[in-house]
Amino acid sequence: MYGNLIDALPSVLSMGNLLAVIVGVVAGICVGALPGLSATMAISVLIPFTFGMDPLVALGMMAGIYNGAMYGGSIPAVLLRIPGTPAAVATSFDGYPMAQQGRGGYALQVAVVSSALGGIVSALVLMLLAPPLAKVTLLFGPTEIFWVAVFGMSAIVFLLGGDVIKGLISAAFGVFVSLVGADTITGAERYTFGHLELLDGINIVVLLVGLYALPPAIGLLEEIRDFDTENTGRLNTTSIWKAIPGMLKYWKTWVRSSIIGVFVGILPGAGGSMAAFLSYNEARRASKNPDDWGKGEPEGVAASETSNNADTAAALIPALTLGIPGTAVAAVMLGGLLIHGLQPGPMLFRDNPEIVFGFMWQFLFAAILLIFLGGALATNSFAQVLRLPRPLLGAIIISLVFIGVYSINGRMFDVYLMLGFGLIGYFMDKLKFPLPPVVLGLILGGFAEQNLRLALRIGGGNWDILASSPTAKVLIGMILLVILSPLFSRLMRARKAKRVAE
Amino acid sequence: MGFKSIAIAAALVLSSGMSTAALADYPEKRIDLIVGFAAGGGTDVMARTTAPFLEKYLGNDVSVVVKNMPGASGQIGVTAVAEAKPDGYKIGTYNLPGTMARTLDRNADYNADSFTYLANVVNDPNVIVTPKNSDIDTMDKLVEAAKKRPGAVTVAMSSLGGDDHFFLQKLTDVTKADYTVVPFSGSAPARSALMGGHVTMGIINISEVVAFRDELNVLGIASEKRSSMAEDIPTFKEQGFDLVNGALRGFVAPANLPENVRAKLLDAFQKTYDDPDFQQAMRRSGNPTELALGDDFKTLNAEQLELAKRIWETTPWK
C-alpha cells in the first residue's frame, strides 16, 4: 500500500494537477473568508463542472478549497468577529479580542500556521493510517455516537460563560432549531408548517449567517463609532517567517488539537465545529492562565484553527473506506468522487490507487501551500477590506450573505429564514445571550436525538444498551470526568482556602 | 374589414403552421433535466450520464442541461416537473417507490396522473446482508433466528417508506416472522453499523454491496434473475422465497405531453439504452440497468403505488 503512495506522486506533481490545488486553496480562502459562502457550497457548485474533467484535477481543487476555507473562515472571525465558516466560531473567542488590541496580524499568522499544521497532520494520517482508523469508526454504532454527542454537549457547559441561565436558554434554542424538519426515523414533519423547504431541517449556514454576520453588519451601519477602527485597522504584521519561532511554544496545543481534530474527523457526522469547540476547551483546561482566555490568548486561536483543519482529511477516512462522510464538506466531496465513477469502499483503494493516493497527496500539498498563500493573502488583501468606510463594509457583507444564503439551494425561502435569525441574533446580542451554545445545540441536538432513538430500537427499548459496549463505558467515563472535574477542583480550592483561613 | 379578416386568417394559418412545424422540429431549444437531489448522488449521476446520449439521439444540436433542485428527499424537484409546461423542454428524474410513497405519507402537490412516463432505466434490486463474522449466513438460519425470539433480529436500512422498507414488509409476510426496523439516514451508515456488528442484518441494494463483498455475507438478491454485477449471489426465488423488490430510477415529463414530442423522447431513450457506451458508463457508475419504456413504465409505476398503498394501509410507518 505504501508503494502505491509513491507511485501516485508523479501524476500529482504534474503541472495541471498542482495548479488545481493552488487555485483550490486560493478559492477556498476567499470562500471561507466571505461570510455566507462556505466550502460545502463552493464544492457543490464545482462538482457539476468536473463531470468531464480529469478526476485528479477536480479532486485537487476540492482538497484545496476544503483546506483553504477552513483557514479562510478565521479571517473575518478575527477581524470582525464574524466567523466565515461554522468551524471558525471558536477562533473568534480570542482572535477578535487580539484584533481589538492591535494584534490582529499576529492572530492571523497564528491561525495560518496552526491551520497548516493541523492540515498536514490530518493528511499524513489519511495517507498512512486510513484502513486501521476505519476499523475504529466501525466501533462507533448509534449508542457510541450518542455518547460522543453528549460529550460535545458537555463542552457547552464551558461556553456558557458568565450567565448560566442565558447560556442554557441559548443552547436550548439551538436544540429546538435542530428539531425542525422531517423526523429522521419516521419522516413525520416537525415545525414545518407545510413548507417543503423546511423538511430537510435548517441549514447550519443559514443560522450561522443570521446570528453571527447580520447583527455586526447592521452594527457597522448604525453605530459607526462602536467599532474600534483605530486598532482593528492596523494589523501590525511582521514577516510570517519571523513570527513562527515565537509560536513554537504552542506545540502542546498543536499536538493535542491535532489529535482531537483527527478523532472527531473519523466519527461520522460531527464535523469541524465540534472539533474546534472541544479542542479550545481542552486547551483552556490545560492552560496555566485559563482566566486570560477569551480576552486575546493566541493559544485559543491556535487550538481552534489546528483542530478544524486536522478534521479535514481525517473526515475523508470514513468517507473513502465506508461511504460515510465525517463532515458536511466530506459528504459533498463524496459526490465529487461518485460523479467520476469512484465508489467508496475497500475496492476503491485496489481499483483506483493512483487517484485515491493522489488525492491524499493533494491534501498534504494543500495544507503546506496554506502557509505560503494564506499568510500573504490574508494580511495583504483581506485586511485592506478593513480600511473601507464602515457603512460600505456593512453593505458589502449584507449583500454577500444574501447571495451566499440564496445559492445554498437557490431559493428565497432560506434568505427570509436567515433574516428571521438575523432579528433573533440582533436581540440576543443586545440582551447579552451567548451565541456559541446555539451553534453547538443545532449541530449536536439532532445528532444526539437520532442516535439515541436508533440505539434504543436496537436494544428493543431497553436502556441498558446505552452502557453495554466497552467503547460506550469509556465515553461515559470521559463525560463524567469533564463535568465533575471543575466541581472537584472548586471543592479542593474551597477546602484549601478554608485551611488557610484557619 | 375584408383585408383585416384575411390578414387575421393568414396570421392564424401562419402561426398554426409555425407551431406544428415547431413541434415537428422538437427539440429546438435547450431541455432542462431536473434532478431532485444534490449533484453527486446516484440519481444525479444517472442523469448526467444519460444527458449526452439524449443530446446525441434527439439531434438538432440540442443541449440537455442537468439542474439540481435538492430538498425534501426529491419531492421539490419532482413537484417542479409535475407543474411544468408539457412542451418537452422540462423533464426530470423519477424515483420509485419514493415518489409514489410520498403521495401517501405527505401532502404532495402531484399524483400518479401528473406525469408522462418516459423511461425507467435503473433497477437496483434489494439484498439481505449480514456481517462476515455472523453465524447467520443463510436464509434458513435467518428465518430460524427471527422466529426463535420475535423482534430479536435488528434490521439496518435507509429511511422508512423506501424500497428497503417495502422489501422488509414483504420479507415479514413471506417468512411469517417479526423483525425490528432500525432506519438510518441512508444506506452507507446502515451498512457501516452492520459491519461494526451493531445490528443483526441489513437491507441495502446490490449496487451498494459490490464494493464490500469481503466484509459482508450476501444472503440473496430480490430479482427475477441473478445480477450481472454479482453472478454468484442466488436469488431469493431460487431459495424458495417469493421476494422481488428494488429501487427504480428513471425519467418523466409533465402529463399531457404532445404525442410527437413523447414519441421522439421515447425513441431517444430506447436508442440511448441500446448504446453500448451508455451501458458501460452506467456499469462504471454502479447503476444496474433495466429498461421500462413509456406505457411499461406507467404500469410499473401503478404496481409500485399499489404496493405502497397496501403497506401504508396495513402498517403505516408514521
TrEMBL record, chain A:
Segments passing through the bilayer: 12-34, 46-66, 106-129, 136-161, 167-186, 198-218, 259-280, 313-339, 359-379, 391-409, 438-459, 471-489
InterPro entries assigned: DUF112_TM (IPR002823)
Pfam assignment, any one: TctA
Chain intervals with Basic and acidic residues compositional bias: 287-298
Residue ranges of every copy of the DUF112 domain listed in the record: 18-440
Keyword Transmembrane helix: yes
Keyword terms: Membrane, Transmembrane, Transmembrane helix
Top-level taxon of the source organism: Bacteria
Chain intervals for the UniProt region annotation (Disordered): 287-306
PANTHER family: TRICARBOXYLIC TRANSPORT PROTEIN (PTHR35342)
Protein name: Tripartite tricarboxylate transporter permease
Record organism: Larsenimonas rhizosphaerae
UniProtKB/TrEMBL annotation, chain B:
InterPro entries listed in its UniProt record: BUG (IPR005064), Bug_dom1 (IPR042100)
Keywords: Signal
Domain of life of the organism encoding this protein: Bacteria
Signal peptide per UniProt: 1-24
Entries under CDD domains matching the protein: PBP2_Bug_TTT
Signal among keywords: yes
Pfam families attached to this UniProt entry: TctC
Similarity annotation: Belongs to the UPF0065 (bug) family.
PANTHER family listed in its UniProt record: BLR1237 PROTEIN, TRICARBOXYLATE-BINDING PROTEIN
Entry protein name: Tripartite tricarboxylate transporter substrate binding protein
UniProt source species: Larsenimonas rhizosphaerae
